């Protein structure tokens, strides 16, 4: 079980135009990734999903808050002592081609981490070969035909399977899949998502899905927990089915409305519109972060910031003063 409490992260922007400006990438995020469970982070570009995923995988520092791994608080450990904890949280990136060394065969790719593992656990070369074949079989690849090949000789879907196989060499507790199917041919995406689900069931590994695509987040499984993130704040959180069927935050509603087939928006007609704009996180608001885009805002929303909580009548946690079921449609703002 991985837990986070009040995680904050601020980046100082570099580059000529934004130099010195601060971006609050995460504003006090709480999360739980149960053992063997599935969690998805969803939200538009720049909302902080990857930053949070990287923090969870130990690849990024954070300014405030606390991460706990199986009951051990990371703040109680020295940097070096944290490594064994974070090693079992493996990140799978969106581009399987750049994740693999093009000059190495699949055998060589798997050999390096397995050699380390063998050393740690007192195993021999025979074990390494067996384990290489085993992790490839686990991801649905035929070791006999794949081991001697180079990445460019495989399809995108097969390459992503190799990346997952490599992650399995360390017996991970959590796989962090950051837009893991977005660069893969549409016809192969479902196979990868089904594989992650299968690994959860067979190995008890937890999966964290990071995606801007609601359709993808549906595949995390019925027992999955969905976190909707807006400008570094979790604005709605609950069981994936509940959030999709019954969203109460206007931002979640606007995200979902991009897939009319899921939401029954055959006749958008006179429904309120939530404008979609490019975000840079630098426009600070005193009140609700979503107020400037929200067609349902009231005076209170401009001055007070709602926190994530459960209120009567709303089925899941939300950060909205006026949570209710509404049908909205998202539309790009003019000029964007
Ligand atoms: N290394 C960095 N230096 C400065 N700013 C950063 C850095 N990494 C992220 N940011 C900023 O932090 C914010 C959150 O970025 P992040 O990559 O986590 O978003 P995201 O939700 O993963 O977006 P996307 O869907 O485009 O991948 C953005 O405003 C981004 O510009
Ligand atoms: Mg990202």
Layout of secondary structure:
Elements lengths: L1 E11 L9 E12 L4 E5 L6 H8 L7 E6 L2 E2 L5 H9 L1 E4 L3 H4 L6 H16 L3 H14 L4 H4 L9 H13 L5 E5 L7 H18 L2 E6 L2 H4 L7 E6 L2 E7 H6 L4 H7 L3 H4 L9 E4 L22 H5 L13 E2 L10 E4 L4
Parallel strand pairs: 3-8, 3-9, 6-7, 7-8, 11-13
Antiparallel strand pairs: 1-2, 1-4, 4-5, 9-10, 10-12
Bound molecules: adenosine-5'-triphosphate (ATP) and magnesium ion (MG).
Magnesium ion binds next to α1.
Account of the protein in words:
The protein has 336 residues and is α/β, with parallel strands linked by helices. It folds into two domains: 2-88 and 172-332, Rossmann fold; 102-168, no CATH class. The protein contains 13 helices and 13 strands. It has helices at residues 49-56, 79-87, 96-99, 106-121, 125-138, 143-146, 156-168, 186-203, 214-217, 240-245, 250-256, 260-263, 299-303, and strands at residues 2-12, 22-33, 38-42, 64-69, 72-73, 89-92, 174-178, 206-211, 225-230, 233-239, 273-276, 317-318, 329-332. The strands form three sheets. Strands 6-7-8-3-9-10-12 form a seven-stranded mixed sheet, with helices on both faces. A four-stranded antiparallel sheet has the order 2-1-4-5, with helices on one face. Helix 7 (156-168) runs parallel beside helix 8. It is globular. The chain starts with a strand and ends with a strand. Residues 49-50 line the site of magnesium ion. Adenosine-5'-triphosphate is lined by residues 11, 13, 23, 25, 43, 45-51, 212, 280-281. Residues 2-256 form the ABC transporter domain.
């Amino acid at each position: 079980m991985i837990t986070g409490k009040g995680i904050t992260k601020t980046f100082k922007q570099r580059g000529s135009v934004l130099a010195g400006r601060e971006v609050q990438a995460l504003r006090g995020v709480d999360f739980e990734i149960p053992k063997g469970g599935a969690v998805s982070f969803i939200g538009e570009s720049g909302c902080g999903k990857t930053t949070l995923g990287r923090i969870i995988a130990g690849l990024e520092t954070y300014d405030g808050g606390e991460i706990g791994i199986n009951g051990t608080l990371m703040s109680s450990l020295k940097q070096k002592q944290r490594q064994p904890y974070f090693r079992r949280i493996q990140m799978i990136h969106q581009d399987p081609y750049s994740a693999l060394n093009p000059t190495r065969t699949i055998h060589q790719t798997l050999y390096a981490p397995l050699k380390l593992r063998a050393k740690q656990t007192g195993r021999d070369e025979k074990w390494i070969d067996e384990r290489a074949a085993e992790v490839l079989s686990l991801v649905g690849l035929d070791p006999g035909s794949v081991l001697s090949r180079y990445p460019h000789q495989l399809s995108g879907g097969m390459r992503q399977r190799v990346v997952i196989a490599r992650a399995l060499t360390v017996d991970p507790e959590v796989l962090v899949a950051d837009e893991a199917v977005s660069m893969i041919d549409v016809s192969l995406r479902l196979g990868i998502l089904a594989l992650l689900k299968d690994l959860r069931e067979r190995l008890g590994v937890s999966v964290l899905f990071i995606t801007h695509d609601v359709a993808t987040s549906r595949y995390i499984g019925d027992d999955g927990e969905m976190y909707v993130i807006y400008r570094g704040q979790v604005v709605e959180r609950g069981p994936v089915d509940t959030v999709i069927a019954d969203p109460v935050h206007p931002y979640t509603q606007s995200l979902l409305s991009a897939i009319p087939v899921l939401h029954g928006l055959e006749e958008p007609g006179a429904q309120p519109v939530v404008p979609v704009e490019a975000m840079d996180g630098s426009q600070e608001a005193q009140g609700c972060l979503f107020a400037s885009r929200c067609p349902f805002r009231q005076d209170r929303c401009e001055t007070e910031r709602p926190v994530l909580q459960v209120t009567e009548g709303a089925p899941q946690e939300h950060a909205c003063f006026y949570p209710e079921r509404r049908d909205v449609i998202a539309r790009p703002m003019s000029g964007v």
